[in-house]
Specification:
Helix 4 packs across helix 7. This protein is 29% helix and 22% strand. The chain contains seven helices and 17 strands. The protein is globular. With 344 residues, the chain is α+β, with helices and mostly antiparallel strands. It binds 1,6-di-O-phosphono-beta-D-fructofuranose. The site of 1,6-di-O-phosphono-beta-D-fructofuranose has 11 residues, from strand 5.
Amino acid sequence: MTKPISLTRYLIEEQHAGRINADLRLLIEVVARACKTISHAVGKGALGGVLGDAGTPGAASINVQGEAQKKLDVIANDVLMEANAWGGHLAGLASEEMDHSQPIPDAARRGNYLLLFDPLDGSSNIDVNVSVGTIFSVLRCPDGVTSPGDEHYLQPGTAQVCAGYTVYGPSTMLVLTVGNGTHAFTLDREIGSFVMTTRGMRIPEDTKEFAINASNQRHWEAPVQAWVADMLAGKDGPRGKDFNMRWVASMVADVHRILTRGGVFSYPLDAKCRDKGGKLRLMYEANPMAFLVEQAGGAASTGRQRMLEVQPTALHQRVPVFLGSRNEVATAIDYHRRHDGAGG
Ligand code: FBP
């Protein structure tokens, strides 16, 4: 059996193959190092005093999404900000936890990339010791732009040069793509390095497992109601096979399961989030996950459009999400097409 390689060696090989340049390689290393620090904080849990809400009792700290911030949301955001401020590979960065994008300080060396991230995904699971994660996406800064504003980040997912997430679970794993397949690296805590544990993750085209927050069922659109009802009807129903369900309520954990053994994940549009356009964010949740999933042979859609072709209109824009095993995503799209076609 070939000796597993480190993340650093994998990135150097990608650079030598001309698929990434030195700046992107070093940027990924900076993000990976920041995720090691976050993994350490998450692992300490109550012993590190990092659980619970940020802000003071009676004065919770609220982010741009209108959500109460957890201490770890703020800690993870600060770690990623600090690590990337002086790394020298970025022109700017944007985070779920910050209203607007941040240009790199004048004093620091600037690079040609834009980094977007969800510093701590799955916030509702932090205090109950369930897997959470960090999700990131890298875009090129448009030529000639030295101090990028929010508008310079509004590039479709097809423009991503790199995407990844780190899941902080029983083990800490980094899953990454630079457009040449999707690969998994496990943090070896003894040597403090990410080591490749799966090269070329592949999502089976078909699945018998779906992930959705079923408590929202009454709020779903008709095509989603029909799609899920037919899966729940099992082998005696129109789908002719039994389906199982999983829902961790941490997108990183649900998507990691799908990249590992297949399945379909959905957070559809529903009456509760219709005015916002969906629950999950396009730029630093849906797009990076869509890039990773497509590079592993899966598919990602809004139900009506390929996710990576959505033209962004706002930094914190939300979208409906269907991703995973390509034939099941195609089936979900088909339910929408039939419904919309029938003038539904
Ligand atoms: P954040 O925790 O980063 O806000 O992400 C949103 C999220 O927690 C996803 O990770 C997850 O898939 C979803 O919301 C869970 O939603 P719900 O609480 O409705 O089950």
